[in-house]
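Hi F.,

I've been meaning to write this up properly since the lab meeting, where we talked about keeping a consistent format for the predictions we share between groups. The idea is simple: the sequence comes first, exactly as it goes in, then the structure tokens exactly as they come out, then a line or two of notes. No screenshots and no reformatting. I'm using this chain as the first example so we have something concrete to point to.
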Amino acid sequence: MSRSSALRYYVLTRLMLAPLMIWTITTVVFLLLRATPGDPVDALLGARAPAAAKDQLRTQLGLDQPLWVQYLDYLGSLLRLDLGTSISAQGQTVWQIIQAHFPATVELTVCGMIVATVVGVGIGAIAAARPNTPVDAGGRLFGIITYAIPMYWFGMILQLLFSVRLGWFPIGTRYPLQGTPPTSLTGLYVVDSLLTFDFGALATTLYYLALPSLTLGILISGVFERMVRVNLKQTLNSDYVEAARARGIPERRIVMVHALKNALIPVITILGLTFASMLGGAVLTEVTFSWPGLANRLYEAISQRDYPVVQGLMVFFGIIVAIISIGIDILNAYIDPRIRY
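Output, unedited:
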């Protein structure tokens, strides 16, 4: 089988398995929500509400039905692309919640990923180019520390230092409450500011993005630092690098032009999967900085026992992870001709 045919077969297989993965996520979330303590009716009405009112609301929400009936009803809704309606947000659909909050999460994740890539790849490349030196030891220490530090703790430390003590940055939120955000075209304030040439709004948006994106990016950068440092060290010991040194090519050019390019191939996979996980996993950062993103909304839905919102958002994030992982595999196959499927 030719390489193109093998890749085409692999992509079709992954596309066929994607619904199975999403169904598994849906089933696990559905069962876990109903297995954990707590009742959405109590969350809405309060534990001391009259029993008749509770029963009426439970019937209205379909929670009085057997578990298997609720499960089949939910699967039927998913097949109609209906992610459900919130039971705590006055009839707001999950699609409306996604439309309102997802752009904020994307903006924070992209900025955090830029910080993580620049810092992680930069420190990893510098450490690998100076093996067995204090610089190399410092790079290893950076990777360990950033991986071990709790994200919420690091965010609060940055808030305490740069917001409370120094007053350099706002303590949270996405935009000043008394300010007017840029005209909404995409929901991404940075993009909307550029499209409308509103550079004042652009400066304000970046100002409010700085601290949460640094929190997210610096802690994720340790993953990239370790990957780049290990792979670049191996690449610098390869035969073609030794041949380049023998030809008198400067070491800096060897690292930046020849070795780093090949060392970044496995990093692409980690970068893509990390980006996908950051979209749904930035809960601690968004909660710490009161960022009005989808991860923060998911946290609120879990606290309120809002079954439809939690299930719908988990399905949405599962679809994103499936799409990105397939795209990364295809990109890797085209970048590295040695890959076979």
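Notes:
The chain is about 75% helix and 0% strand.
The chain has two domains: 3-79, 95-303.

If this format works for you, I'll send the rest the same way.

G.
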